[in-house]
Design brief:
single chain; alpha/beta; five-stranded mixed beta sheet; three-stranded mixed beta sheet; 8 strands; DNA-binding; HTH psq-type domain-containing protein
DNA sequence: CCAGAGTTTGCCTTCTTTAA
DNA sequence: TTAAAGAAGGCAAACTCTGG
């Protein structure tokens, strides 16, 4: 017993008075309780200026704010009172038990996520703390004041149906910093990347954990006790105290040598165009690591253990196209492009420089998530069979700034009118079996959209006629409706051999 | 000094939450 | 719906303290 508290004696006398004279209903309830509040239970009502309390003063607000103690009512304390088990026992076994401080956090309200409501006591303490700071204080005092006042704002906000985000907390901290006037105070915003906003639940959990950490660090509570009294997880608190709450939670696992071989095998498969999905890796992973079953965690940990691996999206590649492509074909293509672009003066005027950029969209997905080399943009995946379901978009414009309606080439047998809804006439539709651009549709687009209208008015028709003739003569694509020829050009494009690349190489 | 009970801590797995 | 991160729980070894 450290100190006799006059207020406790008064309260005991008051209870005795209620038992004998029954002056009120509330007192009747108290008198009817079989267990009377003891002195230790009542001390929390009136913090005194003992050394223990002084030491605890700075964390008082946080403790009160975050433990829902503010919900307590006298009736609660009476009906839920639990005699302290170690009240009469020496607590010498503990390095420093929190039992001497239990009046701060009564055991009757230890919900995991307490409801924070107003209680004059905690607000009064915060106001008193502010007043002391106003008279001047150390740098540590001011730092703590920023934290406390921010916590006060959070406390008040929680009384209302507001969602508290960490942006709010940062704003409160900055505002308090201006009031307190702490030189050199900087709000950490997480570097170049903005911090993720937190929900009120997350913010509450974080602040509760910080309060529990403070209890361990400054008051020398045990982790177990602090975790229990604050309603946080023991391991979580331990991890935070050991700075293990960020990044990996456990030590670097040992990698079985067989698993290294598996990683190499997966990389080799990815490199040869036959990447493996996670289920392919399941059986070896389970066997190597002596697991009973395979789940997502095993896959994730396998990838984490091997930094050269990650989940990638495949890029479907047609084996037939690869086989058709030869060096001779590439040389022929480049020589023809060079002749057209330079020797026939197609690049002399801006109005003569047209760019048609073809983009192909898959309507039938032919990609998958596979295990491949980290950082690689495209993981090619071989397939045999029919062509993909495609929609080809072909925008067209010239160097003088003239933009023409784009061509949309759908795969199918006939036009669907609804496809043009909302395009305001800026779409030139086309349909063929594959959805891939062919000579006929390309020529029709040139004849119907590029050559007429403004282009014809500016007398560019001869240019396009020459271009069409050249294409017809040199590439023989108008008369010969050879689909494979077009596919070769697509194959060229896949190989990175485009007119722009050829032009850049030539220059 | 030793046994035993209680506590702390590390490692691992499983569950939950969140974002895309 | 799924991947990823975080939280929580189980287990066991190490540690601490007490009593004989």
């Amino acid at each position: 017993m450290d100190t006799v508290y006059p207020m406790n004696i008064l309260n005991l006398l008051e209870t005795e008075y209620g038992q004998h004279f029954q002056p009120s209903d509330s007192h009747n309830q108290a008198a009817g309780c079989s267990v009377l509040p003891t002195e230790e239970d009542l001390r929390f009502r009136l913090p005194t200026n003992t050394s223990t309390v002084d030491e605890f003063e700075k964390s008082f607000a946080i403790t009160n704010l975050l433990n829902g103690y503010t919900d307590a009512t006298p009736d609660d304390r009476l009906t839920n009172y639990e005699p302290l088990s170690n009240e009469t026992e020496p607590s010498s076994r503990r390095r420093k038990s929190c039992s001497s401080l239990e009046y701060r956090i009564p055991k009757f309200h230890l919900t995991k996520q307490p409801t924070l409501t107003t209680r004059n006591g905690s607000i009064r303490q915060l106001n008193e703390w502010e007043r002391q700071l106003a008279a001047g204080g150390s740098r540590i005092d001011k730092l703590e004041a920023i934290g406390l006042k921010t916590g006060k704002q959070f406390f008040l906000a929680k009384q209302k149906p507001h969602v508290v985000k960490d942006m709010d907390i940062q704003r409160w901290a900055l505002t308090t910093h201006r009031d307190v006037g702490l030189a050199g105070f900087q709000l950490r915003l997480g570097g170049a990347k903005a911090p993720k906003l937190k929900t009120s639940t997350e913010a509450h959990a974080q602040l509760t954990l910080e309060a529990a950490s403070q209890a361990v660090a400054k008051l020398e509570w045990s982790e177990r006790e602090s975790a229990m009294l604050y309603g946080v997880n023991r391991r979580t608190l331990s991890n935070r105290l050991n700075n293990r709450h960020l990044g990996p939670h456990r030590k670097q696992p040992k990698i079985p040598p067989q698993e290294e071989a598996l990683a190499d095998f997966v990389l080799a498969c990815s490199g040869t165009g036959i990447p493996l999905i996670r289920q392919h890796c399941a059986a070896p992973i389970v066997e190597i690591n002596n697991r009973h079953a395979f789940n997502d965690q095993h896959s994730c940990r396998f990838l984490q253990r091997h930094p050269t691996l990650s989940i990638r999206v495949t890029h479907a590649n047609n084996r037939k196209k690869d086989r058709d492509w030869t060096h001779e074909l590439a040389d022929k293509y480049i020589s023809k492009l060079t002749e057209l672009l330079f020797h026939r003066a197609f690049l002399d005027e801006p109005e003569q420089v047209w760019n048609l950029d073809e983009s192909v969209f898959n309507t039938a997905e032919m990609f998958d998530r596979v295990v491949g080399r980290k950082g690689m943009r495209q993981i090619y995946s071989q397939f045999d069979g029919t062509e993909k379901e495609l929609v080809t978009i072909l925008p067209c414009g010239n160097a003088a700034g003239l933009q023409l309606p784009f061509m949309a080439l759908f795969s199918g047998k006939r036009h669907v009118r609804s496809r043009l809804d909302g395009t305001s006439g800026h779409c030139y539709p086309g349909v063929n079996d594959s959805g891939t651009m062919d000579q006929l549709h390309f020529a029709n687009y040139l004849n119907d959209r590029v050559i007429p209208g403004e282009v014809a008015a500016k007398d560019y028709q001869p240019i396009f006629e020459r271009l069409t003739e050249s294409l017809s003569a040199e590439l023989d694509i108008v008369d010969q409706n050879d689909r494979d020829e077009i596919l070769e050009f697509i194959g060229l494009k896949q190989r990175g051999v485009t007119p722009g690349a050829v032009l850049a190489a030539s220059l």
